[in-house]
């Protein structure tokens, strides 16, 4: 297992993905989705949205930090090497047309269908809600509008998004059949899931078992030294299990020194290496991996006006796309009452 790479399908023209601005991105995001975006940005047109309207589906208070999180997420994008010359990075709420498209799509989705989305029940359970809000119920419909608004034909996602992408495809199909073919049915390559530092199935910021892309070297070292390993191995001379061992899973993803990884694995299996050495080397490898990311982050962090410009420029571009698609959708549905540009739309 090494860092995943995405194999290009010849019919892909446009990618869309994004993140809710709920906090900084971590190594799980890198493995599960940022890497695929980096693979695609040289090959297809890329749209990456910061989905601030989607925050309201699970949170209606303490929203003051959203603005800060938006900047941090964009910094994370730029830091990993997503290039604003190649990718349109934009803010969802600066493209209000998406809400009108959401409304059109809502008319095509039955309430029981929306209620059957598995992430809905999970969210209600995990967040201990009395019931889902209308916004939470509409979460995947807004997501479908984000995707179809730019006519994306490839949407790299994590496995938890599968049911949402299936609904997106259904909405596209239903629309195309009812009116005329306007929307693609997007493919959704699924990125691998990274285990948590504590051995839990998923690295997740709310579980506190992640290394953030913005962590400094000492924090990385501290986190790695406390990682969960083979619990059976109480002494360095006991043969250990490499398979499923988080320390080796992380070595496999992030350590570019393959000889070192092979050597550590061998000696671990034979009981000829201590955890401390394995972890020291992992901490060094992750820091090597993060160093160029830190450098780019520092560059953009020192230029906040540039980050804002990138987001505003991207949003202008995305909005142009959005207005065109919305007009097309309205025409297909028989809802375009006037010729030419919609009344009130800025060109
Ligand atoms: P929270 O704890 O608040 O749920 P999180 O760290 O799980 O945060 P999300 O914002 O839920 O992050 O994740 C957004 C997307 O990032 C997910 O849909 C998934 O595709 C991807 N992702 C998150 N964590 C991982 C992971 N550990 N491995 C692979 N992909 C991940
Ligand atoms: Mg999560």
Q: What's the short story on this structure?
A:
The chain is mainly α and 347 residues long. 50% of the residues lie in helices and 5% in strands.
Please name the CATH architecture of the largest domain: 3-Layer(aba) Sandwich
How would you sum up the major sheet?
3 strands, parallel
Number of domains: 2
Under CATH, the topology of the largest domain is which? Answer: Rossmann fold
Q: What fraction of the residues are assigned to beta strands by DSSP?
A: under 5%
> Strand order, biggest sheet?
1-2-3
Average per-residue pLDDT, rounded, comes to 95
Series of secondary-structure elements, N-terminal to C-terminal: EHEHEHHHHHHHHHH
> In CATH, what is the homologous superfamily of the largest domain?
HUPs
Ranges with pLDDT <50 over ≥5 residues? Answer: none
The bound ligands are:
adenosine-5'-triphosphate, magnesium ion
- Briefly, what CATH class of the largest domain? Alpha Beta
Instruction: Choose one word for the global shape.
Output: elongated
Nearest-angstrom radius of gyration?
22 Å
Q: Whole-Å distance between the termini?
A: 48 Å
Number of strands: 3
Q: Classify the helix fraction into a percent range.
A: 40-55%
Multimeric status of the protein: single chain
Number of helices: 12
